[in-house]
Amino acid sequence: MTTDTRTAVADLPTSVAHYWLRQLTVLLDVLHRINYWTLAGLTALMVLLVFAQVVARYVFNSSFDWADELSRLAFVWSVFLAIAMAVRERLHIGMEILTSRIPEPWRHQLARLMDGVAAGLMILVCYQSAKLAYEQWDEKLASMDASGAWFVMAIVVGAGLSALELIRLAMLGQPASGEVVIE
Amino acid sequence: MSGLMTWGFVLFALLGMPLSFAIGMAALGGLAASDIDFNMLPSRMVASLDSFPLLSIPLFMAAGELMIKAGLMEQMIAFANAFIGRVRGGLAQVAMLAGAILSAVSGSAVSDASALASTMHPSLKKNYDERFSTAVIAASANLGPIIPPSGAMIVYAFMAGPSVSVGGLFMAGTIPGILLTAIFMFQCWYIAKKRNYPLTGEPVSVKNIVVQTRRSFITLLMPIVCIGGIVGGVFTATEGAGIGVVFALCIGFFVTRTLKMKDLPEVFVRAALMTAVVGAMIAFASTVTFLMTVDMVPQQLSAWMKSVTTDPLMFNLLVAVVLLLVGTAMESNAAYIMLVPLLHPLALQYGIDPLLFGFLFVYNLVIGMLTPPVGVVLFVVSGVTKVKMGEITWAVLPFIASQYALLLACMLYPPIVTWLPKAMGY
Q1: Which of A37, B149, B184, B364 could potentially form a cystine with B107 if both were Cys, beta carbons 3.0 to 4.6 Å apart?
Q2: Which residues contact B259 (CB under 8 A, 6 or more apart)?
Q3: Do A46 and B55 touch (CB under 8 A)?
């Protein structure tokens, strides 16, 4: 698995029709780098918070309840941001029982169609979660002085980024890499 | 509505959409059909993932990967070698034992498979034929989710709810895991003897055992501290995983000194990515599960099942057949997420011990990871060793057979699974 999957912009088709694809690719390459370091930081933060809580409990005989909530917040953000990165790297697992029997170029076009449909799903999820975040904005988190909507905001960003990645894949028509990860 | 969701999922999954998004499409269809506001989707997605126990998944993955990067494999191979000595199929037995120890550190068969394949395959194929070598690696990696810690068990316990604890399930897997390791090692010896494979390794010497044990002592301490602490109730599974990461960092930086600062971001991002693949399914499935409950699907399933059989053993066998079929078509995490909420409550109605059913469920799907066409472990081993899937499949059959034999033994004589957790107070 490669974690750096920037597409060489120069390799893309140059017709006017592909102008937007190029723009999107450039944008997503930047967002991917930001996402990469954010994810590394979020996981490190989870390790730190969880470990600190055990130390605090057994060594200093105290606990801080904001650490629990902050670690869960970091987890929710890391999952939704990583969902978008997993779209980019084709890590979300699908079934190939039927699709592997479809001859090219139909298989290819079907994959693009499915990416497009999934992009639609993600746009809807992004829109619905944005609405929910707006409604919840004045609520407070249980242990920290911040808006309760920060949890839902993870979906707004994650689903939005996933939608963009899926749109790019649908436009590009890149075949699935077929890499299977996770038990 | 439940019918619509099921068919919607099957349709999109067959058309090649990733399973998590196909579940999302089903959820969307269900919400539309039952006239419920779409904002239920994001609120249930957040609620399902806002859970401290789930944090243990990325943390255990990171801990396992870090231990591998810290040079755990080389140490464990030397350690296992010291004990096994010069016997028929010795190197294959070393691979099994090293795999079992690796399993006690890492929670995922996939990372075990790639670590074992890259470290053990070169020496295995020098002594045995290619098919047997890769089959040994695949079988050994498959011990991963049975011996604690186990990502699969964490997902199971999460989906099953309060009647199953992660610590209890970890204990349930311990004795079958040790038994299976012993069976695999015996099989290696038997096959090696029959095929007249060369003798490998140095004869056992007390001095070598002492030296290797001292060298590996700190590494071996990690599973004892993490798993022991979780099972003994000193800390939660998530905290145990967090301690595991810190432990692995200390070993990698200060003891073996093979870990570098620049390795960390990649390990952490990888842990997040592997978690997200499961997390996406959990998030979208939460709406589907809710709608199915509204539709009284669990009750209907229970009534139907009871008209088929009232015998717990028959029920367990039926579930095994269902999971075998599901396992051939679908990735195992999707199966946990969709089937555990339906089947676990049913098992309780049959009076089956929740830990026994949980273990059998996980074990069934773990065996499925070795069976084509979607045997994930086979994919990984084949990818690293460049041996064709079909060839590994044939060679791995004897190991699958013994896994099924042990599964049957656990069904017929449950104390193999339940004795240890009961003795530990679960």
Answers
A1: B149
A2: B66, B69, B70, B249, B251, B252, B253
A3: yes
pLDDT per residue over B226-242, tens digit each?
A: 888 998 888 899 999 99
pLDDT band at A40 (very low <50, low <70, confident <90, very high): very high
**B29 in contact with A at a CB cutoff of 8 Å?**
no
Q: Are A82 and A43 in contact (CB under 8 A)?
A: no
pLDDT digits (tens, 9 = 90+) for B232-285: 888 899 999 999 999 999 999 998 889 999 999 999 999 999 999 999 999 999
Query: Is the peptide bond preceding residue B373 cis, with omega within 30 degrees of 0?
Result: yes
**In this predicted model, which residue has the larger pLDDT, B100 or A97?**
B100
Looking at chain A, which residue has its C-alpha nearest residue B274? A182
Angle between helices B332-349 and B297-308 (to 10 degrees): 70
CA–CA distance, B46 with B284 (Å, rounded to integer): 10
Contact A170/B at CB under 8 A: no
- Which chain A residue lies closest to B281 (C-alpha atoms)? A92
User: How many Å is the Cα radius of gyration of chain B?
Assistant: 22
Please check whether residue A44 touches B, CB under 8 A: yes
Residue B70 tokens, joined:
């810290």
What letters, b where the CB count within 10 A reaches 16 and e where it falls short, cover B113-148?
bbbbbebbbeebbebbebbbbbbbbbbbbbbbbbbb
> pLDDT at position A178, please?
41
B345 Cα to chain A: minimum distance (Å) = 25
Q: Which two tokens stand for residue A74?
A: 């970091």
Q: Is the pLDDT of residue B63 over 70?
A: yes
**pLDDT tens, residue by residue, B283-309:** 999 999 889 888 888 888 888 988 989
10 Å CB burial of residue B398 (0-12, 13-18, 19+) is: middle
Give the position of tokens 């967002």: A31
User: Phi and psi dihedrals of A140, rounded to 5?
Assistant: -110, 150
Who contacts B307 (Cβ-Cβ below 8 Å, separation ≥6)? none
Q: Does residue B201 or residue B413 have the better pLDDT?
A: B413
- The confidence score (pLDDT) of residue B199 equals 85
| Minimum distance, in Å, between the CA of residue A9 and any CA atom of chain B | 24
Instruction: Return the residue in B21, B28, B367, B379 with the most chain A beta carbons within 10 A, the one to mutate for interface testing.
Output: B21
B20 burial via Cβ count (<10 Å: 0-12, 13-18, 19+): buried
Name B347's Cβ contacts closer than 8 Å, sequence gap at least 6: B315, B316, B319, B354, B357
Query: What is the reported pLDDT for A180?
Result: 34
Residues 376-395 of B with CB under 8 A from A: 376-377, 379-380
Report CB contact under 8 Å: A43, B62. yes
Q: Do residues B341 and B71 make contact, with C-beta atoms less than 8 angstroms apart?
A: no
Closest-CA distance of chain A to residue B97, Å:
20
Mean pLDDT of B308-317: 92
**Interchain proximity B52–A68, CB inside 8 Å:** yes
